Amino acid sequence: MNNYAHPDVLVSTQWLADHLDDNSIRIVEVDMSPENHQNTHIPGAMFWSLMTDLLNHDFSQKLEINTLEALLSRSGITAETTVIAYGSYPGTGGWIFWLLKLLGHKDVRVLNGGHQKWMSEGRPVTSELANYASTQYSIAQLDPQLRIGYDKVLANLQSPEQVLVDVRTQAEYSGEQFLMQPPKEDERAGHIPDAVHLEQTLTLNTDGTIKSFDELTQLYSQHGGTADKLVVTYCAIGARAGYIWFVLKCLLGYPNVKNYDGSWNEWSRQPNAPVTQS
């Protein structure tokens, strides 16, 4: 599939259609509300809510081991389950891939094109979301190689060996928006100094599928994001950055990629963190 470094991490809509009755897989739909896909859920899909299952009230990600264990257990997922992730927002599946790899899950795959492509092809849909018998999912630890914290990002700002990739919109990068709206009161908007701006949507075709290996390689290499450097991705809350981690690590095969999952939500609130607006 497009000469990706690890093509098996992506599944096509046809592959998923052929495996809808396979009890060894769990399809995870991620969105703000199940009503966003009302009557158009992929058959067999269960639902994970962005705001209650995956994010805290302050928009930080829920990365506590016991919370993640409870989520996977109630979803009927075991260590041997193949998880297929998708959503209506570009890159949602890639973020869930990063999240599940962070906790050590073995077999995670992303539906290429997500809900958009599934619907455009007229594939079967349902009004019902699936429920499965609970399991006892156990997580030993979170993989520290997949993420990076505020202190290390700050310490490496002047290092030529680190490339920061800001994957937010132009309005967020320039400081016109803070997270999802214009900044207010003491909110600091802008970007981390010297961060390269490459919005996550640049990786996608018009049908929602991910661009080819050659196109992705050209996109990142011409902006300094090469495989010989530490590439740190960030966005507003670490979700879009998780998707770009997936693109760089799994599709392009970059050896040293980390998601700064605290992202702008954390950086902008640190009084000593430098901020650039442009």
Compact overview of the structure:
The protein is of the alpha/beta class.
What can you see in these coordinates?
There is one protein chain. By secondary structure, the chain is an alpha/beta fold. It has two domains: 7-141, Rhodanese-like domain (Oxidized Rhodanese, domain 1); 147-267, Oxidized Rhodanese, domain 1, CATH 3.40.250. Helix content is 28%, strand content 14%. It has ten helices and nine strands. It has helices at residues 13-18, 50-54, 65-74, 92-102, 114-120, 150-155, 170-174, 213-221, 239-251, 263-267, and strands at 10-11, 25-31, 45-49, 82-87, 108-111, 162-166, 196-197, 230-234, 257-259. A five-stranded parallel β-sheet has the order 1-5-4-2-3, with helices on both faces. It has a four-stranded parallel β-sheet with strand order 7-6-8-9. Helix 4 (92-102) packs across helix 9 (239-251). The longest helix has 13 residues, at 239-251. The chain is globular, with a radius of gyration of 18 Å. The chain starts with 9 loop residues before the first strand and ends in an 11-residue tail after the last helix.
List keywords for this structure.
278 residues; alpha/beta; Oxidized Rhodanese, domain 1; 2 domains; 4-stranded parallel β-sheet
How many domains make up the coordinates?
2
Uncertain regions: pLDDT < 50 for 5+ in a row?
none
- Characterize the overall form: globular
Count up the helices: 10
Using only CA atoms, what is the Rg?
Answer: 18 Å
Strand content bin: 5-15%
CATH architecture of the largest domain: 3-Layer(aba) Sandwich
Along the chain, the helix and strand elements come as EHEEHHEHEHHEHEHEHEH
Label the structural class: alpha/beta
User: Averaging pLDDT over every residue, what do you get?
Assistant: 95
Quickly name the level 1 CATH class of the largest domain: Alpha Beta
CATH topology of the largest domain: Oxidized Rhodanese, domain 1
